[in-house]
Amino acid sequence: MMTEQDAREALVAAMVQMDAGGLNHGTAGNVSLRLGDGFLVSPSGIPAQDLTPDSIVLMRFDGQYDGPVKPSSEWRMHAGILAARQDVNAVVHCHSRFATTLACAHKPIPFLHYMVAMSGGSEIPVAPYATFGTQALADNIVTSLKGRNACLMANHGQIAVAKGLRQALAIAGEVETQAGYYYGTLAIGGPQVLGGDSFDQVVARFQGYGQV
Q: Which residues are catalytic?
């Protein structure tokens, strides 16, 4: 079981990793981890390189928090997802280049490559637009993530969820990779999308993938 200090350090490391890997930049993006009856979330307006474990904010689901550091403006989104999805303990939100480009064009990512299935569906949908930090955006994201591990956020970015933080980061990275593939195929006439039966076969193959 991860201690609170371990979780704080992991969230700082995740934000630094997203910057280093090109998934994020500046003060954009945010991450969270479920902790007991609440959750830890990255703070508002602090660049990744300036984060410390003490700047991570411990919150309750009603929005209450202790200490002088303000939580991410997107805390409602994190709270909503964690409250609605008991299978999820980690949330990663970033403004990666290709995913955000498609999100700004309101283009869901179709099943053009088998790894799209890592998102939990045969398409990576685009959640409807709402102003950042609002309850409306949180509600849109919760709805769009139903039964899925990732979605794009219209005119905003992308979000990935998982049981653990490492897995959520991996999903966010894969969403960006698939977004890059889709963007590239759009420049040469569009992708050849895989059929629905292919998705079922991929899901079945994923069940036995790796060192089980």
A: 74
